[in-house]
Design goal:
This protein is an alpha/beta fold. The protein has helices at about 1-10, 15-25, 30-35, 45-60, 65, 90-100, 120-125, 140-150, 210-220, 240-250; strands at about 70, 75-80, 110, 130-135, 155-160, 175-180, 225-235, 250-260, 265-270. Strands 5-4-3-6-7-9-8 form a seven-stranded mixed beta sheet, sandwiched between helices. A two-stranded antiparallel ribbon has the order 1-2.
């Protein structure tokens, strides 16, 4: 373990955590077990598997892809290279959705670009009375989302394949949620860190990163009930541009919501009644 940490340290600030997560994954144990039984010897097969995963981590492969697991909204989710790795800041999108859904009432909700299903599953867990449709253009991502729903025992979500509004069949909703791709296609960050391994289609959206958001804003009115809400995650420096797009499309009651770092991360707007 110490040797693994020493090799990871020059490349990753979370060297100790990374090493422990990989070893715990191989052993099928929680991390706390490693501290309780630090002297336990590793079998030959476990050592070999650990070294394989360590080498891949040294090449930059995200821990979540190596273990196949990621936690979001306290839900353990399967993730893989077909899905974006859910970020903690996306929980703000869930929080803002829940604020607009009274617990005892029913709402029709659409989560567009669902990926692993993280946002749809979190909202469905908190508001089980609601009807949820979750779409993605990737069949592989949808298969992952369906498996997550089955493992978590969350029912009532209709997973559909389609690009943005294609799968909504003319239906209308009280809330439309999305964490769309919003990185500019030539952003150098796409060639760095974890982003190198995540699906480009879930990250990049045109020259300014706003292509998907423009599509979502322009198409939402045809799928929102009067007074319905559109909630979008976006880049921390895109808030003003997103607000202008929403105003031009006739939305009102615009609000900005900041992440824990104080950066504008989610915008909400309402369709006129």
């Amino acid at each position: 373990m110490r040797r693994a940490q020493a090799r990871l340290a020059p490349l990753h600030e979370t060297a100790r955590l990374d090493a422990e997560l990989l070893l715990a994954h191989i052993l099928g144990r929680p991390r706390a077990w490693l501290h309780t039984w630090p002297e336990k010897p590793l079998g030959e097969a476990a050592q070999e598997r650990f070294q394989q995963l360590l080498e891949r981590r040294l090449c930059g492969v995200p821990i979540a892809y190596l273990t196949g697991r990621c936690e979001f909204w306290s839900l353990p989710l399967e993730v893989n290279p077909a899905t974006l790795i859910p970020r903690p800041e996306t929980e703000l999108l869930v929080e803002q959705a829940l604020e607009r859904i009274p617990e005892a009432e029913t709402r029709d909700i659409a989560d567009l670009g669902t990926g692993s299903g993280a946002v749809a599953l979190a909202v469905a867990r908190e508001r089980p009375r609601c009807r949820m449709v979750a779409t993605d253009r990737s069949e592989e991502a949808l298969a992952t989302a369906r498996r997550n729903a089955a493992i978590l025992g969350i029912e009532g979500i209709s997973f559909r394949c389609g690009d943005w509004y294609e799968a909504l069949r003319g239906e209308r909703f009280d809330l439309i949620l999305s964490n769309p791709p919003y990185v500019a296609q030539d952003d150098p960050h796409l060639r760095q860190g974890d982003l190198r391994f995540e699906p480009r289609s879930a990250l990049a959206a045109g020259p300014d990163g706003l292509d998907a958001i423009r599509t979502l804003i322009s198409g939402a009115a045809a799928h929102l009930n009067p007074g319905g809400w559109l909630l979008l995650e976006h880049g921390f420096d895109q808030g003003e541009k997103v607000a202008r797009l929403l105003r031009r499309s006739g939305y009102h009651e615009l609000s900005r919501h900041d992440d824990l770092a104080g950066r504008h991360r989610v915008s909400a707007a309402r369709l006129a009644v």
